[in-house]
Prior knowledge:
Helices cover 61% and strands 10% of the residues. The protein contains 13 helices and four strands.
Amino acid sequence: MxxxxxxxxxxxxxxxxxxxxxxxxxxxxxxVLLSLASSFLWLVSLMLIALLLRGFLPWISGPAAYAxxxxxxxxxxxxxxxxxxxxHKRMLTILNNLARQADGASxxxxxRHSLALAHGMxxxxxxxxxxxxxxxxxxxxxxxxxxxxxxxxxxxxxAALCSLxxxxxxxxxxxxxxxxxxxxxxxxxxxxxxxxxxxxxxxxINFAHNxxxxxxxxxxxxxxxxxxxxxxxxxxxxxxxxxxQQADESLTExxxxxxxxxxxxxxxxxxxxxxVSYINLSKRFLAExxxxxxxxxxxxxxSAVALAEILKARGLAFEKGITTALENLADAKxxxxxxxxxxxxxxxxxxxxxxxxxTQEADQSSAHMRPADASAALGGLRLQDDP
Length: 387
């Protein structure tokens, strides 16, 4: 078929997915490793499915038998998705604890979705490798390949279009599925599983003459459905509380019980960290939400008060309200109560001006820094992303 045609089909199958991977995943080393690990896991699951079905090959013939195989395969993969989600949930807790220990921040809504997207990309890469890249060596010959059931479309073009559809479907549906599982919304979970099954069953149309002419566009249409499911899901999820909920997981073993909705810009103050370590996070929340809530338990109350006074003294915020309560905490010794303080601060009208002035002063200080000091400062930086 020639190198040009092979490259063209390869760009159709993997081009959009590769561009999305480079844009959202490839810039962060951890997401790259996570997507590769996820890809390996899903490849193993696909090979296990193939091994389980190998003994039934003599009896697999006709649409009904293939439909049973597809239902079984999709069910196994959806079960694997639930298992991957529990690993993902555990990983979120560990990463959130590390982030809080490093700079007092917590994983935000976008961070959690980036991790879910990495899992989805891994699933998509595994599917493309298993169902498309295995055809590429056959495409290097002099001609192309047509099947008797579909003489109007090249097998390689059909495989490329299907690979594109399933790549997009798996990558996007993983985000919606993880959110649905996290917030225990069975309707969204069933929607994603049903969409996966429906996309797989569409391949049965190929039993009809020239059925591939209908299957390919229907699969490409199906890849847009996770967007609608995601929009419905996002519209009903408490997105703004994600930072607070993730931060609460590392507070105690059992965690406090919350009777009401959490503040969208809530910071849990730890008594083991200095108040100044929360200043940058407070500035970010003030800039994004216009408010920040400082929440502290027990001995951490003094740190919360000190942080509030620092922000007020700099002219960045003024006090909107203070709430005190007794919080029930559960640990190995049983249930006990701790005093709880919540301070809500609102940014001042001069907030943007003060932040701009501080930025300018920091830039001027950096410009006048001596070479030795600059080398020492650069030596203390942590590498967050790959260049």
